[in-house]
């Protein structure tokens, strides 16, 4: 069962809970209790920071120390978590709350004082840090996530803030669940069914094109990539009308390759299992569109999601093939492992037919993103103003993003011998930027657009940290949500 969040009240020192969470800050070698824990400190005769320092606490961000309270407070367990140096910002609170929630696994009921610092960040961090994907385990394989966490807050609008933060975190965990679902259970047909189920529960309109409709409709990219698999492709459209008075129209596009072998240009066996995450962009835009509907955001949001499985077979598309994309442009396939941009090109053209005010696409598009920016920083390309706006939101939410250029000279590298353009260039350099340039060819003039390459940030292969679990991360749901709320407020 997912962790339940509630607003706490009263004195945390006398709360009837199993554990209490307090924050620690480090400054110039001194250890200090963070704001919000004064009652707990009083119960320890004002010496709690000194006691924790003796026990080895340093206040380093995400450091967790568990100590028995021995009757000093009602709760039998105290969990102290580091917030780093200086005044903690929202992401420090989010990361500390995530680390504390993970340390509380197996606990029935806890109370956190971190909500007094930043309720939204504490709520998001707690739910995301407690996340565990156990659907395919016969045994949970460890302690259950903390059952309930009460968050203290003095904010006047605390109830509404908690409601929104819970909805946002739930959208992130929805995306994580989709990414973590193995490809034999999540393939185009079943993925489309999951998207329909989520959307209809939130009052979102759904349209699904099957493989026959895709061929008849001229979606040559999705059809070409998906033709090598027995599990045929789909294109899903989710539409939230934005309520009675939508202020803007936003098109979201997400890459939905449910498994990527590379096709005939097959990938090495090592780490190919991670290609179950190649639909992370699709998961993010589906979850974000449903979130917009659940919270009644006054922005019309439509997600266009191409779904395919890229497999080698006697029916697979080949290097050298020419595909006619939706809208009529032709693409020479030089590498079948550059399949994401082919299905996205179809989706971008279709999404642009709705005449959106903004068009945002996100995908696990290139390994070059990780070479350039590492595994935690997405590359953001596109129209400069929108690009910079998204990168700023990505950084503010803690999801990470960096504005990247689309140099005009790279377009010549995509010239084809036989078609309008090729799907890859003949050089290894600037692969992330080349992919962005390719996508830009399918965006109509005058439409503000951005591409977010999340190849690294969408899937974490190491041990958990902060509020990030191993596996699907849910990036960039919170970035997209921050952008949509910004658009709702500022256009």
TrEMBL record:
The keyword Hydrolase applies. Coiled coil: none annotated. Mn(2+) 1 binds at residues 260, 337, 339. Mn(2+) 2 binds at residues 255, 260, 278, 339. It comes from the Bacteria. It catalyses: Release of an N-terminal amino acid, Xaa-|-Yaa-, in which Xaa is preferably Leu, but may be other amino acids including Pro although not Arg or Lys, and Yaa may be Pro. Amino acid amides and methyl esters are also readily hydrolyzed, but rates on arylamides are exceedingly low; Release of an N-terminal amino acid, preferentially leucine, but not glutamic or aspartic acids. CDD domains: Peptidase_M17. HAMAP family: Cytosol_peptidase_M17. Belongs to the peptidase M17 family. This is Probable cytosol aminopeptidase. The gene is pepA.
